Amino acid sequence: MRAVYLGAGLAVAALLAWQGSVLLLGPRVQTVGVAPRDLVRSVVATGRVEAPHRVDVGAQIVGTVLRVPVDEGQTVKAGQPLVELDDGELRAAAREADVAVAQARARLRQLQEVQRPVAVQGLRQAQATLDNARATQRRQEELFAQGYVGQAALDDARKSVELADAQLGAARKQLESAQPGGSDVAIAAAALAQAQANAEMAQARLRYATVSAPVDGVLISRDVERGDVVQPGKTLMVLSPAGETQLVVQFDEKNLGLLALGQKALASADAFADQRFAAELTYINPGVDVQRGSVEVKLRVPTPPAYLRQDMTVSVDVEVARRAHALAVPVDLLHDAETAKPWVLKVDAGHARRQPVRLGLRGTGLVEVLDGLKPGDQLVPASAGVSEGGRLRAAGGTP
């Protein structure tokens, strides 16, 4: 019986010792270690197959169709005119813009070849007038001292000097404005640049009057006739370019800033989900679908698998960024991740301390940490139930 009491006493003592260690050192927590890893960010969307792919052709300006020199089913070359709009007003605007450029250039040339030499001559003349006025003033002062002229004559001579001096200052300012870097030259140069920009814009709009084939191919649809008034965004023709299969995908517009031409992707047809094939982003529509809040993206498939069919549904995973050996942590370790001041709980001398971090690339389940952590740091997951400043014993691990 005594042995039983003794054993119970030892058990109670051990329990009290364990509880004491927990109170003093904190609970044992499975922490997550920070380590470098390859981080990839991708965006996913669904779309369809176009084989051969099609290009919707439309006008970029409002205009009346003057001529449609191609027919449905016709093979066309890149740059070949497909639709010609009435460009009378656009040509007149382009000529007017060219005239404005010529006038602005003539004004700048006038400053350099006429106004500047005239200003130089005017400065010399003003200097000579001032010198002459000062000489006259000196003579009048001598005559006044000898009593040959009165105060009025002396005052007139002084006023002549003041007037000549003011004229010299004005002539000097006029020359400065006509010199390179002067105000008149700067204004004339700015006017010339503005006129040239307007001329380029007018020429661009004039080019829009001819809708040309963007690539070689076959016209598979035509919905425009002579006399029609066309609007930007309306499809006039559908062109099927010869060449590789492409994918047409609708991405959420919030991902538009992440997409770029040339990005690599992996795609799979829904009917063959376990078979993936390579693709490359080749086109981003400049407009956004207002109804769906999406942007149309096209991807080239260099080596299409044999099972792909026209209008087959596909899923596309586009790699938009990659970091090799990036210092990254799991998303669920972050606090206030969507704010300007994210932070994590880091093990510091047996305590859970708040550690501000600066975030970078976001991948699938991981976020790059640009500042605030170093390899080997141990982080406390939210599920551990440890509050900021609390004691703990870290049982280190890796994400």
Automatic annotation (TrEMBL):
Swiss-Prot/TrEMBL keywords: Coiled coil
Entry coiled-coil feature ranges: 94-205
GO molecular function: efflux transmembrane transporter activity
Pfam families documented for this protein: Beta-barrel_RND_2 (PF25954), BSH_RND (PF25917), HH_MFP_RND (PF25876)
Residue ranges of every copy of the Multidrug resistance protein MdtA-like barrel-sandwich hybrid domain listed in the record: 54-237
Record GO cellular component, one term: efflux pump complex
Domain CusB-like beta-barrel as annotated: residue spans: 248-318
Annotated Multidrug resistance protein MdtA-like alpha-helical hairpin domain residues: 123-179
PANTHER family: HLYD FAMILY OF SECRETION PROTEINS, MULTIDRUG RESISTANCE PROTEIN MDTA
Family note: Belongs to the membrane fusion protein (MFP) (TC 8.A.1) family.
Name of the protein described by the UniProt record: HlyD family secretion protein
Native species: Roseateles saccharophilus (Pseudomonas saccharophila)
Organism placement in taxonomy: Bacteria, Pseudomonadati, Pseudomonadota, Betaproteobacteria, Burkholderiales
